[in-house]
Amino acid sequence: MTIAITRDRCVRRAMEAAEAALARNPAATPTLSDLAEASGVSPRTLQRRFACVLGRSPHSIVRQLRLAAARQSLRTGQATSVIDAALRHGFEHPGHFAAAYARAFGEAPSATLRTTRHERPASPAAPPSLQIVLRPLRAATPDDAARALGSG
User: Fold this and answer.
1) What predicted TM-score, i.e. pTM, was given to this entire model?
2) Residues 68, 71, 75, 80: is their CA dihedral positive or negative?
3) In the structure, how many helices (H) and strands (E) does the chain have?
4) Residue 11: enclosing H or E segment and its boundaries?
């Protein structure tokens, strides 16, 4: 997600802290207290600054960052399913994830995944290496027949 770099130092520090936490652990959900501490202000001041500068809450910005990371995972093939993307990025309820994703990006996560699969078809799996050795057949003898019948 691209949020314009702001001149507001506490908002910028909070955003950097959120992005760093998500880079370390994509399922992280940095709390308001964590972000406020990183930016050097009280939680309430941080909420006010986010509302004033970005028109949104810190929680909604962190959620948007996580959704954008999930979208990237679906687009690059890092996530092989919608549930994989949701869980990888800290969304425990796939239905809520899908609804939030659709609101944010205008399409269902399954549509993103389907588009990605069509744009980048999977390379066909190489057939397993199988070595077949053909040997010439020799003519059967009466002894071979007796051996096969167990009487020899």
Assistant:
1) 0.71
2) positive
3) 8, 0
4) helix 9-24
